[in-house]
Amino acid sequence: MSVPPAGIPPFQLLLEGDDEELELLKRKIERDRGFNCQFYKDKCLRRRIAVRMRARGERTFADYGSLLDRDPGEYDLLLDTLTINVTKFFRNMETWNAVEQQVAPHLFAGPGPVRVWSAGSASGEEAYTVSILLREWAQRNGRTADLARLRITGTDIDRRSLEAAERGAYPELSLTETPEAVRRRWFSPGPPFQLDAAAKQGVRFVHRDLISGPPEAEQSLIFCRNVVIYFDREIQERLFKRFHDALVPGGFLVMGKVETLIGEARTLFRSVNNRERIFQRPA
Ligand SMILES: C[S@@+](CC[C@H](N)C(=O)[O-])C[C@H]1O[C@@H](n2cnc3c(N)ncnc32)[C@H](O)[C@@H]1O
Q1: Which of 156, 174, 258 to mutate to test the pocket of ligand 1 (most atoms within 8 A of CB)?
Q2: So what's the pLDDT on residue 76?
Q3: Residue 39 Cα: closest atom of ligand 1
Q4: What distance in angstroms lies between residue 156's CA and the mean position of ligand 1's atoms?
């Protein structure tokens, strides 16, 4: 298709037709920016690419591809849109309450490092929430010496998000689910709200593609929330197997509220809290 037929809204067309041009655009994005669109659900991709095309008044995938060549700023915006890096500190507070009650007490039970992986960490809010939560838990339970064993790794495919994570300075929007007392203890007044250096201790961020990159290993706790939902079924199943293998026996996996284990993965984990999507690799 080059020009949409009169009377049909171009946006609707973009959501349905033009498989060949879309395929070419997907390959171009991978070639230019290393973002592999093939693993993502087509419907999600189309919707997001269409949003950017509409914003720039482009009517065909081919024309939009040419615009990307002329305008690197638009390329950055497209990648932001494709990766959707929306996140917050203490996102879904009920999940964090469950992590505190059902996971934290087990984490430091054995000796050695306690590794936590935030897979798809975006700008770091999830990784730092774990840090704050476990530090507060350790203080309340007289376990602060154990914190020296804590290593938190956030990984993401989006470099700009990772840079923001390293800066650790956040807008108001990132803190709307954070209890006031926690805000006062762990952030300087803002905006931007700068995270206290103590919460950054033992936390690192690494650029990594969850699908094609090397997996982490020996993890006690993995968060992968609001990430797999965008992947097709086969990739999801492959990732769940990877998470299983990356966990120590007895290690925990926390998924997003709208996500769930599928296929064979259901036999690999036992459920700790169904509502909050907390699972455990059997010991
Ligand atoms: C909606 S955010 C989720 C952030 C956080 N986990 C949360 O639940 O608040 C999704 C993140 O997954 C990342 N992502 C998408 N595809 C990825 C991939 N193949 N490898 C690594 N990260 C990916 C995006 O860049 C984005 O930062």
Answers
A1: 156
A2: 87
A3: 19
A4: 6
Which candidate, 241, 89, 112, places its Cα nearest to that of 179?
Answer: 89
For residues 230-242, average pLDDT? 92
Query: Rounded to whole angstroms, how far apart are CA atoms 245 and 227?
Result: 18
Pair type for strands 150-156 and 114-119? parallel
pLDDT at 9 over 60: no
Instruction: Give 116's strand partners.
Output: 152, 221
Token pair in block for residue 62: 């081919």
Type of residue numbered 173: L
pLDDT of residue 202: 97
- Under DSSP, is residue 200 helix (H, G, I), strand (E, B) or coil? helix
What is the Cβ-side half-sphere exposure of residue 187, based on CA atoms within 13 angstroms? 25
Spacing, Cα 118 to ligand 1 middle (Å): 9
The residues with which 205 forms a beta bridge, in sequence order, are 154
Average pLDDT for residues 7-29, to the nearest whole number? 74
CB burial of 241-250 (b: ≥16 within 10 Å; e: otherwise) equals ebbbebbbee
